[in-house]
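Continuing from the previous page...

OK, I double-checked the sequence for ABC transporter ATP-binding protein against my notes and this is the correct one:
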Amino acid sequence: MDTLLANDLTLGYGDQTIIDSLNISIPKGKVTVLIGGNGCGKSTLLRSLARLLKPKSGQVVLDSEDISKLRTKEVAKKMSILPQSPTTPEGLTVYQLVKQGRYPYQGITKRWSDGDEKAVNHALEDTNLMDLRERTVDSLSGGQRQRAWIAMTLAQNTDTLLLDEPTTYLDMTHQIEILDLLFDLNQNQGRTVVMVLHDINLACRYADHIIAVKNKTVFAQGRPEDVITCDLMQNVFEMRCDVREDPLFGTPMCIPHGKGRCLIKAAQQEAKSQSIG
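Thanks. Re-ran it with the corrected sequence; updated structure tokens here:
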């Protein structure tokens, strides 16, 4: 069963077309990762899936309904999005930020309730932020700040999470921390996770489904083991590499070709041996 579908989707800004006649299906209850070169349209596609960008043509279908025909709060109760590098107003506490995830459930006749408070506390617990709830977001480390934003999307209590490069600007430790958190949410709560990642090896490690975007449409989609090949890396990223099995996880692992210290040392040794000969 699919949570999200894009049918003949064409996206762009003004006269510029970014995505052209694209068709994808996002499997329900799985982790899907969008990959592709810089500027290929991954973020634009994610914005359209969240109904933040109106298609030029085609449609996005959420739970068998055309998303354009749903009310904004209806969409927000089914799907939450974390944009790339979100900014936080100065002085806002973690608790105040996470509370904003309950916006779709508020209204003229609907006030803050015990259910809202419970959802916020669950989100803080799931992201291990309960002890930091009174800290200001701008005082947190990069990994903690990203967890706070993820907690806000969790408080929204949707089955589907969309995340645009959630590990950008994070060191390796915090990248794994965030991806492990999202993996646990998928495994333990059945959340559908859709995210844009640049690190192909991490994408292969965490994804059930990979969608590679190239030339304004889908180049390939499927299981990492079926999709990530030397040919795909050459075609999508214009990069020569070897694809081997990750010794820890058994998933595809890309080893890019190129220059490096060991290669230079080998060349120097070869030149030395030739001069001696």
